[in-house]
Task: structure prediction
Amino acid sequence: MSSILVLGGAGYIGSHTVYELIETGEKVVVVDNLETGFRKAVHPDAKFYQGDIRDRAFIDSVFEKEDIDGVIHFAANSQVGESMVNPLKYYNNNLCGTEVLLESMVAHGINKIVFSSTAATYGEPERIPILETDRTVPTNCYGETKLSMEKMFKWTANAHDLRFVSLRYFNACGAHPNGKIGEAHNPETHLIPLILQVPNGKREFISIFGNDYETKDGTCVRDYIHVNDLAQAHILAMEYLRKGNDSNIFNLGNGVGFTVKEVVETARKVTGHPIPAKEEPRRAGDPSTLIASSEKAKEILGWKPKFDDLETIITTAWNWHKNHPNGYEA
Ligand code: UDP
Result:
């Protein structure tokens, strides 16, 4: 039986996808440089190689040793703020890494790839909900590199025997209901894990960035989608490619928006902690509202998100964070 190669399978969304793949009976090989991922997040039944996709000899050796049917690619840097102060790190890891990977895939005749993209490819949206065909003008370097990666796939697919699916995630959140894996970033920049640091005693209050957006309570609106639902979409996307379908791009979100204040309020309810909040100036590069239309993924991939309720999503996140206040570190 051949395997699925998961690049970045020790990271947040990668590790959840590996768990789902193994639960559906797939054989999985994980590659991760462990720069931001955690060895402990990798499912014990996955075969693990520590290495960097920018290292051509290394990635060639994985394709030579393993029988790989398709690739799921999460191996990239993903912090908006960092990408603005250190753009070349993003060009190097995200774009050069993908270029080396594609060279190696083409050389080894590996012709299917599912790729982790982002709503940050859209920038300030021209309408809500956002469709895959809408304008893409990223407002930060992270989104720009992801859009460039999509274009690299497009032109490579045009020239070679290779097909891709790009999945544009909205706000990934939550944790595996089995409690074994969850969200851990160092440093943490995402709203829900930062809020949950307050009831965990790791932070005094949550900062609310901006209270003068044109939204119902002045704070930014985002579409929060559970990480296990994202993981399922990768499995469906690989099936779609296995059936011989053409390259495609899909949004992944719940199609419902919540303000920052609503997220904080829901976390208070879930944790039973007052979670003090402090209103602060806007964070650079934040669009006011991002909500996905995921009709295309539902229709073509048959994707059915299960976690459509914010309280349930935050409950799974809290279940992980309260038992792992230091993430994967002891
Ligand atoms: N946010 C906030 N306080 C924080 C972290 C984030 O108010 O400490 C806001 C942020 O400005 C954005 C929303 O929460 O409007 C979601 O931010 P996150 O970084 O989680 O995801 P993004 O939408 O940037 O991908």
Q: What stands out?
A: The mean pLDDT is 97.
